[in-house]
Amino acid sequence: MLKFAWFPIKRHILVQGKSSPDDPNLKDYWRKREEAKAESELVKSRQKIAHRQKYVCPICGDSLFNGEELHLHHKKPKSQGGGDNYGNLQLVHLYCHQQIHSGTVSSP
Question: What is the pTM of this model?
Answer without folding.
Answer: 0.71
